[in-house]
């Protein structure tokens, strides 16, 4: 009679195997719970980024305009509705100073729905007054009631706070016209300069430790310090940047001081990932290059580094994603909470996306919470792009040795 081999036949305890299966299933529960909570938070953020509002225009009748018109045409019609003549409206749109002031004070937005129909443009002025603000579900439920109760100069809109103008406009004291454009450009400035400093230092340190330094006292000291730096809280780097770059070097609260601070924060991560990429290159490639008469410099920079480059690039992108979300060290080194102008150089004032979101959340007006929700979605979108880029590069250039 044939018997199927069991775990006892191979000397394996069946109770131990059962316990292993229970633990394996138990580990799945926290993962599912975490994914569920993340989905809940993302859904709540999306829900808060859309609201139903009743807005009273500061000037003009509060008209809406059909989809397909340009921003200049809409502003011209709005100026005419406010009582300006055609000559005055044309002058304001043609004169550079008047045109810049006009676009700063007015925001042309595409609303998903209005009291005059779906997908229509409205012109929101910084002095417009918010009469009522409702959540998405409540606003849609009371839509007809609110539409009937509109007074002269008021408009009812289904407002998606995250739109094209939100990504390009500077911040504002009014939540109706606030944008995140300055914070995005500040993030680009700070992150670019930080990586410009961190990549050569991090990659060079990794090459030095893996390819040139032998096992010894200096190598052990460097490794211990790098491991310690990788575990230091980011706010400690902010204190270091405040003492060294802002005050010690006299850079002040500038883009360069923030970039150097974040560069120090990113160096340990880049070193660790670059070393792992260098270790993944098989020694047979090194030995083959040496056998052909190549020098150590040629072996390192013409054989090893090109083979490890995909892993290094992936590590740099992941480090950039981490640096993009840092707010605590930048608050210490002087990231301004309100900057109405775009950065013009390494020594200019700046703000970044996380700091801008922090400012909006700390405001008392409830509409700023919706602006912050739109800013959080922008932040998540930027991080998702970086993570997907790292995943693509890892899969595209992966090599099996």
TrEMBL record:
GO terms for biological process: phosphate ion transmembrane transport. Belongs to the binding-protein-dependent transport system permease family. CysTW subfamily. Pfam families: BPD_transp_1. The keyword Transmembrane helix applies. It is a multi-pass membrane protein. Gene3D superfamilies: MetI-like. Residues 184-389 form the ABC transmembrane type-1 domain. The gene is pstA. This is Phosphate transport system permease protein PstA.
